[in-house]
Design brief:
Oligomer: heterodimer
Shape of chain A: globular
Number of strands of chain B: 13
Number of strands of chain A: 10
CATH architecture of the domain at 35-43 and 81-233 in chain A: 3-Layer(aba) Sandwich
Bound molecules: adenosine-5'-triphosphate, magnesium ion
Strand content of chain A: 25-35%
Strand content of chain B: 15-25%
Radius of gyration of chain A: 18 Å
Number of domains of chain B: 2
């Protein structure tokens, strides 16, 4: 069967003066529709780099990235924009809402770029906001909401266009643990409803909520399997930070 | 693409930093206001001059013959003969002398310091039409007659300003003194220019034969001829010139001009002047455009992250480009509207100020902004915004999404 996401020997190399930083160092990875995958790893291990490539925001230095069977690196800027618009929903650590637009306008943005009419946009945005329980705040500015609420708005924005994949880079990173758990259980619910979710985190306690864990270290995949396997949460350098899941 | 949202965003960002917005628009405001003021002034000036010419009559032909001291000359009788010969083209002629005289009534002199005194013949008044060559109508009495001219009678026909000021409106048969000689009022014109001092009602007409005695001339003599209509005026002018050529081999000895030509010459002079001034004003529009470009570049940098977010959500290059072009266009359009308002205000103030100075009552001065001037000013200011907004907008559109998202 065809994979939704497929990395074939992907390298991402940043040339910093004389030294080449291998942010991704020969990654092979496949993700199928309906999966809930957590990509984990220490700071600098290449998680965000991987997510940017999955999200068509960046292209590999070498290797192939196929999204829905299509090689994205051969597409031009506008074609990639269209893929992002149709297939991907982003949830960022810093929410990334546009401060001058109100909540509803923010949620409508992807629909606007999809070319939907004002009525369709409104209906879909309100529906998405209802799902995250913020329909009553739709005329507020982002700055008038709490951090957790803002992150829920950004989830609504990611959902609004009915994407194939929801990409969340450290979505709980800026939230306290209770709101973090709320956001997380929301992602789980989305996954149960059939959405493919890719979650990036450095926190094992969060990662174990996914079905599957992909662990990166220095740009390589060092574990890829069931999230409930104890091996998934073993830190290779456990002595460095002593971080262990399931505390 | 989505015009209304880009437009609202543009208005919002203008409102959030009003000072910056005003400074950005300043160049456009000044440029547009200057263009409006200049075109209104030009328009007002042309209307003013046209009014004055219109009062003079549009089928007048003015002839100046230079007195070079030689025996060659064309005199009044020659002109009468010319008019008799071409009745299809010429309907009348009169000498038109402006003697320098002191006008006095009793001991009163100051009120008449700006009075115009002309020496004309009886043909200056057309009995059939009931008007003079310059459009005055009689209210009381009669105009000069052949006998008055032939016998150099001390009689005059006066405008309503003189009648009101010197004689309290009851002037018939009264006497006014011109350079010491008494002149009896035999006719009074209807008011035509609000009886203002120095205006079209502050005039006295006397027989030209007497005006010659008062020392008119100054090296040339002037005649007014009337063409049978406005359309025959230029043909009539040709006839007059041909007649003068016969006597004077040197075209420098005479000068013939129709009132329509004078009007055209003045109009094109004003046009040229206005074009030059408008171009200079347009330069400040250019400066305004550069100001907009500058602030748009700043805005693109400030909003790099926003651009990254929009791109991550699927905005194509043209979406981003349009957003910033609309923002630049909106900025300059608002500047344009403010400039138009300011320009119209200034034009009205100028109408008030200049109207008081040059207004003779006969022709009022109005600096009127033209609809086309306003439309062009508005169009040009929008165009400038779009033109100078393009470069920054394109820069924004070409940003790499990942770099833009990372931008702090
Ligand atoms: N634009 C860039 N230029 C140069 N080096 C980069 C760039 N982006 C990332 N890197 C390097 O690539 C490596 C992987 O970075 P990446 O952001 O993917 O890490 P990460 O796993 O997301 O870390 P974190 O948990 O801190 O977010 C790091 O060594 C980083 O320094
Ligand atoms: Mg990261």
């Amino acid at each position: 069967m065809e994979h939704l996401i497929e990395f074939k020997d992907v390298y991402k190399i940043y040339q910093m003066g004389d030294t080449a930083v291998h942010a991704l160092d020969g990654v092979d990875l496949t993700i199928d529709p309906g999966e809930f995958v957590a990509i984990v790893g220490q700071s600098g291990s290449g998680k965000s780099t991987a997510m940017n490539i999955i999200g068509c925001l960046d292209v590999p230095t070498s290797g192939q990235y196929l999204l829905g069977g299509v090689d994205v690196s051969t597409m031009d800027d506008d074609q990639q924009a269209e893929i992002r618009n149709k297939m991907l929903g982003f949830i960022f650590q810093q929410y990334n809402l546009i401060p001058k637009l109100n909540v509803q306008e923010n949620v409508e943005l992807p629909l606007l770029y999809a070319g939907l009419s004002a009525e369709e946009r409104r209906a879909k945005a309100v529906h998405a906001l209802e799902r995250v329980g913020l329909a009553d705040k739709r005329k507020n500015l982002p700055s008038q909401l709490s951090g957790g609420q803002q992150q829920r708005v950004s989830i609504a924005r990611a959902l609004a266009g009915d994407p194939s994949v929801i990409l969340a880079d450290e979505p709980t990173g800026a939230l306290d643990s209770r709101t973090g758990r709320e956001v997380l259980s929301f992602l789980q619910q989305l996954n149960r409803e059939g959405n493919t979710v890719v979650l990036i985190t450095h926190d094992n306690a969060i990662a174990v909520k996914a079905q599957r864990i992909v662990r990166l270290q220095d740009g390589r995949v060092i574990y890829d399997g069931d999230a409930h396997d104890p091996a998934a949460v073993v830190q290779p350098h456990a002595e460095d930070d002593g971080e262990v899941a399931g505390q | 693409m989505n015009f209304s949202q880009s437009f609202r965003l543009a208005i919002k960002s203008l409102l959030t930093s009003k000072m910056r917005a005003i400074l950005t628009m300043l160049g456009i405001i000044i440029g547009v206001a200057a263009v409006i003021i200049i075109t209104s002034l030009g328009n007002g000036m042309q209307n003013y001059m046209n009014d004055q010419f219109e009062q003079m009559g549009s089928n007048l032909i003015q002839v100046n013959v230079i007195d070079d001291g030689s025996s060659r000359t064309v005199d009044t009788d020659d002109f009468y003969a010319l008019v008799d010969k071409y009745p299809k083209y010429l309907s009348g002629v009169t000498p038109y002398l402006s003697p320098r005289v002191v006008v006095r009534h009793g001991s009163e002199e100051d009120s008449f310091e700006r009075t115009s005194v002309y020496g004309v013949s009886e043909t200056f008044y057309n009995g059939e039409k009931g008007t003079t060559m310059q459009g005055e109508k009689l209210q009381n009495g009669r105009f000069l007659s052949y006998i008055d001219v032939d016998r150099e009678q001390g009689v005059c026909v006066i405008g309503s300003y003189i009648a009101d000021t010197a004689f309290n409106g009851n002037a018939m048969g009264k006497v006014i003194t011109l350079s010491g000689d008494p002149y009896t009022v035999i006719g009074v014109f209807e008011e035509k220019a609000e009886s203002a001092k120095g205006g079209g009602d502050d005039v006295i007409y006397i027989p030209y034969t007497r005006a010659q005695r008062l020392g008119a001339g100054g090296g040339y003599s002037m005649y007014l001829l009337t063409a049978t209509s406005r359309d025959t005026a230029s043909a009539a002018k040709g006839l007059v010139e041909r007649r003068l050529q016969k006597t004077f081999p040197d075209a420098g000895n005479y000068f013939v001009m129709t009132s329509a030509e004078m009007m055209d010459a003045m109009d094109s002079m004003v046009d040229l002047l206005m074009t030059i001034l408008t171009l200079i004003a347009a330069l400040s529009l250019l400066v305004g455009g550069i100001g907009i470009m500058n602030i748009m570049l700043v805005s693109v940098t400030e909003r790099t992250r926003e651009i990254g977010i929009r791109k991550s959500l699927g905005a194509k290059q043209r979406n981003i480009r349009w957003q910033f072009i609309i923002e630049a266009g909106t900025t300059s359009a608002i500047g344009g509207v403010i400039g138009i308002g300011l320009g119209i205000l200034c034009a009205n103030i100028l109408t008030f100020v200049l109207g008081a100075i040059v207004g003779t009552g006969s022709a009022d001065f109005h600096a009127i902004p033209t609809a086309s001037g306003i439309a062009v000013a508005f169009g040009v200011s929008v165009a400038i915004g779009v033109l100078f907004g393009y470069l920054p907008a394109n820069k924004a559109a070409k940003l790499n999404p990942i770099d833009a998202l990372r931008y702090e």
